[in-house]
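Backbone-to-sequence.
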């Protein structure tokens, strides 16, 4: 069963890889960041609440995000497996997830600290879900849908530092959590995007 969790610092490439891997195995790619950003755009209560945390680079409270994920994981499409990107982000969330379902593999995408800062600073997003880096895609228009690319507010320098601190303090302990459960595999995220994808596929095929 492919019940997958992707771990890694902001900018490690979780979103990019999750998109490719979920397409390959036909399992839903569930990104809590995407869910929250969609709610902000729609102006929902959840969106209003989430925005105040996201803008500071802080985490949305566990009880809020856990409720969102309980509902999402109860949907039919998750019966065939799922790929979680950006959840869990705290030990509390990981424990809540264990009460809902069994994670079969946690893929930890490992990158250097310097790379993380460089990647986030140059990251540009599209409303259609694609993301690019200015070093390999200097145009500000999406190749897939033609929309104008934008920089996420929380990718700006002031917020990135807080996000990295939050990652080190609250999310990095999950590496040990899943390692203790015997489901953690590290993948070298410093390779080309396609190489990282290949390595992840190998790891999934060997473990699930
Ligand atoms: P991401 O797109 O995964 O980088 O998430 C963007 C922001 O959304 C994070 O910096 C948090 O503020 C918030 N967020 C996303 N996922 C979670 C989560 N599992 N728990 C708490 N906050 C989250």
């Amino acid at each position: 069963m492919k019940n997958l969790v992707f771990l890694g610092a902001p900018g490690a490439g979780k979103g990019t890889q999750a998109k490719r891997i979920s397409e390959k195995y036909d399992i839903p790619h569930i990104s809590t960041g995407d869910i929250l950003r969609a709610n902000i755009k729609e102006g929902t209560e959840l969106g209003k609440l989430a925005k105040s945390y996201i803008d500071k680079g802080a985490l949305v409270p566990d009880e809020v995000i856990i409720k969102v994920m309980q509902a999402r994981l109860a949907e039919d499409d998750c019966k065939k497996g799922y790929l979680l990107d950006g959840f869990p982000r705290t030990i509390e969330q990981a424990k809540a997830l264990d009460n809902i379902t069994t994670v079969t593999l946690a893929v930890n995408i490992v990158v250097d600290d310097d790379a993380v800062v460089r990647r986030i600073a140059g990251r540009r997003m599209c409303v259609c879900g694609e993301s690019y880096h200015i070093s390999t895609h200097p145009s500000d228009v999406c190749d897939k849908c033609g929309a104008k690319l934008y920089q996420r507010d929380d990718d700006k320098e002031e917020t990135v530092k807080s996000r990295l601190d939050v990652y080190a303090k609250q999310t990095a302990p999950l590496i040990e959590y899943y390692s203790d459960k015997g489901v953690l595999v590290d993948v070298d995220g410093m390779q080309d995007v396609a190489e990282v994808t290949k390595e992840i596929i190998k790891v999934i095929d060997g473990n699930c």
